[in-house]
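Section 3.1: Structural characterization of target chains.
Under the original work plan, the team committed to producing a structural model for every single-chain target entering the pipeline before any wet-lab resources were allocated. The record below documents one such target. The sequence was received from the expression subgroup and is listed exactly as submitted; it comprises 138 residues.
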Amino acid sequence: MASHHHGYTWLGSGFDLHRDGPRRDVHPGFATAPVPPLEVAQWLLKPASFVQGTWTDPQEAARWFGLQVRPHAEVFVSRAERENLDARIEAVGDRAAGGEDVVGGWWLTGQRFLSVSLVACSPHRLRPSYACPVSGVV
């Protein structure tokens, strides 16, 4: 099971999200591209500067997740996503406690997209060879 989770967010144009070249780890601009990678574990391959927080406590990670998403709920394109947001956020702590990654993505008005991810680390259960991007965190 993961010893901690790193948090990542991205808010940007849906057009940038659909250009999947920079989202692939073989692309020359992958390491510096702020868009979410196609595989969530590959956030761990990006520089530590992309990490927006690190938590060993799954409930603290879940609180951070909620704080990233809730301010945008009013501009979710989907009413169902707004209505189900509380239940979705409540499940985050349990998933993180089980060593899972937690990934959320929401279309916002103005053709924007919000991505919020908690990525398990040290080790990642599917990609144990990916090193922790933050020095001093095991």
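The longest helix spans residues 85-97.
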